Amino acid sequence: MRCKAVKFVFLFFAFLVLTALASVSEAKTIYVPDNYTKIQWAVDSASAGDIIIVRDGIYYENLKVDKQLTIKSENGSDNCIVDGGGFGDVITLNADGITIEGFTVRNSGSYWPDAGVKVFSNANNITYNSITNNYYGIYLSSSCNNTIANNIICSNNLHGIDLYDSKNNSISNNNILNNSYGIFLDYSNESSISNNNILNNYLGIVLDYSNENSISNNNISNNDRGIALDNSNDNKIRKNEFIKDGIFVYSSYGNIVEDNTVNGKPLVYLEGESDEFIDNAGQVILVKCKNITVMNSELTNTDVGIELFESDNCLISNNNISNNYDGISLRYSNNNSISNNNICSNSPKYGINLWDSKNNSISNNNILNNSCGIYLTDSNDNKIRKNEFIKDGLFVRGSYGNIVEDNEVNGKPLIYLEDESDKFIDNAGQIILVRCKNITIMNAEISNTDVGIELFESDNCLILDNNISNNDCGIYLYDSNNNSISNNNICSNNYEGISLGHSKNNSISNNNFSNNEYGIDLWWRSTNNIIYLNNFIDNTENADSWSSTNIWNSTEKITCTYKGKTFTNYMGNYWDNYTGYDANGDGIGDIPYSIGSDKDNYPLMRPFEYYFVPDEPKVSVSTDKYEYRAGDLMLINITFENPTDESKRVKFLWRLDIPDYNLSFTVINNKSILLPPEFKKTFVISWRLPKLRASFNASWYVALYDGVISEDTADWRYIGAKKKGGREREIAIEMAEYLREIERSALHA
């Protein structure tokens, strides 16, 4: 009986072997284009287990593979191209156990989730391919046990490799470069990413809600962020070499991060540790730590120099933190001290970033040339003292109770007011108002900072007669209402001249916006703001209005003069790119100027100041300074202006008065001048002051007359060789002699 059983088992095994051999013998090799012109035709005709070899050429196809096949090129990816023609997926794998080898796969569609290679099956091999210029390079959906190896995956619009809801996949020995994201794992677990070169992507590797993956022995270089962990736990990140990037962590725990280097120095990653001292690192990441000291380190060219996530009572002192994506980042971290650091040139993010972090102390730091010096978001009760900002500053959002004092921006005070009212500000390097009312900001020069003037939840303030230039944003209002912004020069700001978010009933008038990225930007339900009589000149985009409805003209009619005629009408703004016409010549365009969903119904044909100038010529005079001594060079500026649209002949008088001695000297008298229409020009006359014996007060007087049309004076003082004045006759003789040379210079001009 036992012998019969053994014999049966042997016969059954033999049957299996013969069946397997039979199936192998049935597998065939198909050549494209020899047997079939298209790869898809070969796939359709093949049986599971067949091999399809594709000879050199370009094949314009959207290939769908729904059986277990080996499809490979004859001579490698340089010579064999599958081109999707910009439509859909280039290659789709719907069956298990498929091999795709040796192709250039390019030009998928450009919509989510079009891909070069899309995988809905398991245990596939994607090897030795060049996958380029697709929306996604390789996209796996609910797919397991695949091997992606030895590919070049480059210049795809979104992700080089994307794993969604997939597990136990192997990604190794690939070159992944110049994609938006190199590798993206989304709800994908237990995969291996090893021995890849991941270069020059926006993000190198992203784990989003992805756990228990292994990332090891990769070269990760020159990505904006090397590895980003977002709500991803229990991953192992070992023996990777980061160059000019690193790791960023958000809400991720239990990860083992060890034996990695950043720019040749240790990547120090601590979780749940306390009472440690760090003084040599390429990057420092602290998760749920306490009482860690980071001191005397050079942290450069990485994602974030020092990151604290849910870490408290730490000291960061005497470090040089430069040229990182972020300098220092605190999230949900409290009672830390940041002092005496040099924090410079961190871009495109922040020198110091606090997010929902409280009771921290930031003091005595040099904060220089970062995209933003210090950025506070939902962070309260922090102390920011005695920091020196150069070419950056402070930005605040949703943050209250912070003490900000004794800081400087470009050598001038950083004015930070919270819950204040009825203040006057006229000298500042930066101004930030939080929950303030009735603050006046006037005659300030604010340049080269993050935001020149920021109003956060601040109302009824006046911003008047300021020069605001070369900042990231000139004036920023958020949730701020009933403010007046007028007569400011707002120019050459990197982004917005004025930005309004969720702000209402503000008045913006008589400002000059020039050479900003956006002249004015209104967003997120900024409504019922009145914007009129402004000039928008040479901005990349003059105005943008998103989810906002506003009034772009005066709410009452204004009487003005245009080309010598008087009109009364509503008045909008001057837009240098307005292409409409003015049929009746009243200076108001007949076609509205479009601003997103808004419009200016009364656009001006000329800059607003032309509508309010006197209708007669005018003259003005000034000097380059007030006090002069012998040998000083005085620059006398005389400006002639004819605002009318016709030539005007006038007579010109120029006189020097010395009231201390009751002396007057006429330089030019009764000179007839013809001023062309719409003429404005300044003549500069140089005069080297002679050595005179007396000190005196003097005044230049100029006038245009036929009767007196216009007149102006410029006062100045001469400091002579003697403390006491000389005699009237001596001064008169000396001055008369020297003024003849001024007359000759003026007449020549």
Mean model confidence by pLDDT: 92
Helix content class:
under 10%
Beta-strand fraction estimate: over 45%
* Category from helices, strands and their pairing: mainly beta
Q: Cα distance, first to last residue?
A: 130 Å
Overall 3D form: elongated
Largest sheet: 17 strands, mixed
- Number of beta strands: 81
Q: Supply the number of helical segments.
A: 3
Compact summary:
The chain has 749 residues and is mainly beta. The protein has three helices and 81 strands. Among the domains are: 263-409, Pectate Lyase C-like (3 Solenoid), CATH 2.160.20; 410-611, no CATH class; 618-748, Immunoglobulins (Immunoglobulin-like), CATH 2.60.40.10.
Key words describing this protein structure:
17-stranded mixed sheet, Pectate Lyase C-like, 749 residues, mainly beta, Immunoglobulin-like, 13-stranded mixed sheet
Structural commentary:
The model is unreliable at 1-25 (pLDDT under 50). Strand 1, helix 2 and strand 2 form a beta-alpha-beta unit. The strands form 11 sheets. This protein has a 17-stranded mixed beta sheet, with no helix packed on it. With 749 residues, the chain is mainly beta. It starts with a helix and ends with a helix. Among the domains are: 263-409, 3 Solenoid (Pectate Lyase C-like); 410-611, no CATH class; 618-748, Immunoglobulins (Immunoglobulin-like).
